[in-house]
Amino acid sequence: MMLRTAALVLIAASATAVAGTETHGIDLAGMDRSVKPGDDFFGYANGTWIKTHEIPADRASYGPGAILIDKTREQVKVLIQDAAKANPAHGSDAQKVGDYYASYLDQAAIDKIGLAPLKDGMAKIAAIKDKASLSSYLGSTLRADVDALNSTNFYTDHVFGVWITQAFEDPSHNVPYVLQGGLGMPDREYYLEQSPSMAKLRDAYKKHIANVLKLAGIADAPKKADAIFAFETKIAQTHATREASEDVHTANNPWKRADFAAQAPGMVWDAYWSAASMPQQNDFIVWHPGAVKGISALVASTPLDTWKDYLAFHLIDHQAGVLPHAFDDEHFAFYGTALSGVPKQRDRWKRAIDATNAALGEAVGKLYAAKHFPPSSKARIQAMVKDLIAAYRVRIAKLAWMSPKTKEKALAKLSTLYVGVGYPESWRDYSSFDVVRGDALGNADRSEMFEYKRNLAKLGGAVDRKEWSMVPQEVNAVNHPLGNALNFPAAILQAPYFDPKADDAYNFGSIGATIGHEISHSFDDQGSQFDAQGRLANWWTPEDLKHFEGAGAALAKQFDGYAPFPDLHVKGKQTLSENIADVAGLSAAHDAYLLSLHGKPAPVIDGLSGDQRFFLAFTQSWRNKTRDAALRQQIMTDGHAPAMYRGVTVRNLDAWYPAFDVKPGQKLYLAPKDRVQVW
Length: 679
Hints:
CATH architecture of the largest domain: 3-Layer(aba) Sandwich
Strand order of the largest sheet: 5-6-7-9-8
Distance between the termini: 17 Å
CATH superfamily of the largest domain: Collagenase (Catalytic Domain)
Helix content: 40-55%
Radius of gyration: 25 Å
Number of helices: 28
Largest sheet: 5 strands, mixed
Structural class: alpha/beta
């Protein structure tokens, strides 16, 4: 399961200069000691920081994750600019990185070119004359997703997405998983939920569609916008919910090529798969059969003119960042301001860095890892990983409720876990990706096609469990349940996430809990459904599964009780995988920290015991401020609970109570029987 950057707000910027001396560890100044830890531990750990920091105008939220992303972006900017200045050979990674960045950055040139780069795409849409040509066009837009376990809508101009990885029941071969898509808003609920806030967003989205069409000089924009929105609403009605989408058993639908025509009539499937460059592919797994059937039926029932207007709008809006600034501004007005409450667009150079990272991530990452991730940091993180795996091994062995048979399977899975630290073992080959200076939109299109073809090349081949889905300069971490593999990019493995100059209590409470979090995903409500080879297989006895599900239900109920708004509470079931991972990861990190002491007493630093620093480091790692609109969007669509509630996961660990003298009657106090311990 993936910790997405939007929800990943970890360690605070705790290394500060005081009287010219750099300090490391807990941010003492950011605490609010007037707050009782047992009443509001998040406020106790972070209260002064929350009061004294504002969300920047170009942000939906702000915290240490955003701070570190900015730091990393500055580091990458220097690397990219240096690569461009070195006059690299044509066709080299350095040339591609420099030219991609320069082309995206040059808004004046983009404005001058206008909509000319869209001419061929618009002509292809205009040429659609029947179901066969529509199906062919839709197939030509199929693109690769990176993780179906975390996607509910492959949105923009793609009605479907494809995720290519090992088959659920055959871990030795890669297959294409077909995913639902086609929505311009993040999730089906934005179209279907009948609340005032959603109704307001729907009106804003219809206005956005009309504005884009007007900017492109398309006639009858308001009328066409209404028709496009009504059409997307029909698509939304075919989509699975977020919760249903996360059920891998309902996603395990092996289809042969012939099954599409039989089970999902409407689309001309031979034309679709041929245009998608899969004319001979016979085996698929349809993750969202309801959407495949429903959208296919819309090919037959929806007028071609509506389809063509819908496709033209999304073709334009999808590339707004590399179109004249009026389109870019309009795109931000909806997706940035209306949808997320962000008043100001990020600087162009920052978005150019992000776009270059997305297109040539490992080329940039190779430079980044060499410059900013020393061998000493990699060695220390690998040692922490070793301690955490040892802690999990002990925890599993001691579980009183788990049968020997299930323990054997769990330990086998732990022994085959692949943990990638810093950067991949082999780097991606970009030789077939052509980057042309001055062709920002063409570069973006070719980037998507390069990634799609790279994924298609995996079909039928052996599975590479050491392949990374993240780049070294990404402030994030991921667990791949099918591959039983973890990635910890270099960018997250630096201060203040991991501070090589801080004590073990701090590092185990911060990055250690993050590592433990990702390890635990191999055993949570989703990961526990995959065996040591990544095969979808039930390795639990019925009794063990019942206990595990009971603990999960208790944790879901705990999070259901958190309500940041009077009309909206956290969805405990939707966020259960991440909440289980937080509890288990923090518990294992605490065990690993104790192991690291080798029986010696922990030192007292800044008047804080080892356990106090451990728990403060964890909760400061979730320090965050979020705009209301963005927080509502997160609760509706994200598998992660809001940061302030993740930060009080500590209330489920027995060791937290004596560390801060938490007593019955205080707001966060849980009786021992109510403290959820899954692993």
